Amino acid sequence: MADNIRVLNRYPEQTTRGSLLQGNRYTSREFASLEWENMWTRVWLILGREAEIPNPGDWQMEPVGPEEILMVRQTDGTVKAFYNVCQHRGNPLVEGNSGSVKRFVCKYHSWAYMPDGELNFAPDREDFPEGNPCGKVRLAEVACETFAGFVWVNMDPNCQSLRSFLGPIWDEWQARHIDTWRRTMARSAWLPCNWKVVLDNFNESYHVPTVHQGATTETNRQEIRGHINTYFKETQFDLSNEGHNRMVMQGGFGVGSTDKEGNVLEPLKSELRFWNLDPDDFRNNPAATREALQSAKRKLGVERGFSHYPNIPDEQFTDAFHYTLLPNFAVTVWSDSFHFLRARPDRDNPERCLFDNWWYSSPASIEAGFDRRLEHTDVQENGEAVVEMIDPTTRSIGPGIDDDVRVFVTQQRGFRSRGFKGVYLSKQEERIRRYHELIDDYIEGRR
Ligand code: FES
Ligand SMILES: [Fe+2]
After folding, report:
1. Sign of CA dihedral 27, 29, 35, 41
2. Is the pLDDT assigned to residue 254 strictly greater than 80?
3. Which among 26, 78, 160, 162 has most CB atoms closer than 10 A?
4. Residue 5 confidence (pLDDT)
């Protein structure tokens, strides 16, 4: 682990080209297929969770665009990933999202594969002019690594290592022991928008006052701090060489953290008490809780089971570390939980994507009652919250995120208009431009 992990560093400066970003990037089938061939099939994708497949033979299958990827726990404890397709005549090998097998048996002609991908049985094996396929034919493998408790895959056989793909994020996340954190809430939905509509949204906090805080044209945006402060002059923006972004927003503790008399409200009130701080000391001064919480957590964290605290910077105790990982993963990492936001393309419709809104929390914070989401969700045998597929027109996908989803749907409509000539971005939205330019780099062969 890097020695300086406790210091909030900066990523190197990046330059962007100022490319024109027009609506057809979100609507055209031709653009979607260029993206698939040149980008999606050549990058590392966060796809599975190790806790879902604890024992040899356990498998998890997840779709990405036109592909389905099967991830399987091996007898030596590693994970292998395969395309979900039988090498006899192309039938998908498994249906459903997860299971456990001794062998994968294809439902068409009963070819049976071992968890390591080797064909172990074929009916009438002596009848093949090219020779007995058993021990010879294998499932088509996809590069696979595990990190932070997740299973990552890359369809490019000549890909770089996951560690070099992730760059600075590797050390930052490893320090947080994220592999031990548990999923406490998981809602997913198919949305009528391009996957980049989702990622663009999580690549900026410029929309937060309008979409989430009821700001109007009259609002002073410096004074609208909610539980997190999204004011751009007080936010740290970073773009890594590898193409991933980070935005550090201070725990703002302003509007919404106190009642009219200035008393600190929940959940901040309980959090202060947990860390031996008196909420009354912060009456009319909730912003002072930021530093007070940082020192209290630094002092008391380890003895209360928060084992990763020695490895993280003070800012992480209160602030939102929001990352977007190329291509399709956005995550807000707090000291004890993270908000997992992912969008995957549909198999053939560029105006549709599969969106995940999930939460994970550290074991100590679940124990301390900071995250009570598990009390309101179905839990699997392995302790992880069940993933609920919901229809967002009739059910909430999650507090706050419903507001974003409403805009995803309307913005996609706008992108179809001949009247939209291309985006006009603020500096604080530069992460959007960089993201799109990196996609172009893949498409045009620069990456
Ligand atoms: S297609 Fe799988 S056994 Fe024939
Ligand atoms: Fe939002």
Report:
1. positive
2. no
3. 26
4. 62
